[in-house]
TrEMBL record:
Gene Ontology molecular functions: RNA binding
UniProt name for this protein: Transcription antitermination protein NusB
Region feature Disordered, mapped onto this chain: 155-217
Domain NusB/RsmB/TIM44: 17-147
Amino acid sequence: MEKNSRKNNRRHGARYRARRRAVDILFEAEARDIDPVAIVEDRVELSRRPDQPVKPIADYTRTIVAGVAVELDRIDDVLDAVLADDWELHRIPAVDRAILRMSAWELLFNPDVPRPTAVVEGVELASEYADEEASSYINALLDDVAKKAEHFREEFQREDEEAEGSEEPESTPTEDATEEPAEAPAPETEVAVETPDTPENPENSEPQEPEESPQES
């Protein structure tokens, strides 16, 4: 990615250089269609080798790249929302898109950076990499994002809460369900009780004939 040929006499601090490196990586990742975090990891490894003239990656560069990678969908939705009706994010120059994504991440997801600083640094990067026209519309877009940042954050929070509420907790077996069922009590057996024989009812019994006595001869 070529920088603007215009001479820039402003002295930039470490944070600005970290932002510029992040923009370079985001631009390269989109051009190569790879994960920007993978590029950072590759650069970190190369910077440790003495035979490779690769500068170390600043911590803030890594923070920006990782943050943009995680929140890319939300960042792009915000940028689409503030773009004019006749503009589309995927149709603007790739370097402008990388700058906007980097600055939008700072405005929306990094409360440690003052909003005016994020806007000014983004516009400064645009003036370094693009023309005056690009700097002008990038300034307008970032200013709009800064004004609506709180609104967008509230939307993100609601989305997160709704997502958490829609997740059903995994059912865990209850204590009663894990216990083995108790054995059912054995049915009571009837115990036969012996009763003494009772004589037959004389009223119901048939009369017996008396035995004949022997006659005298």
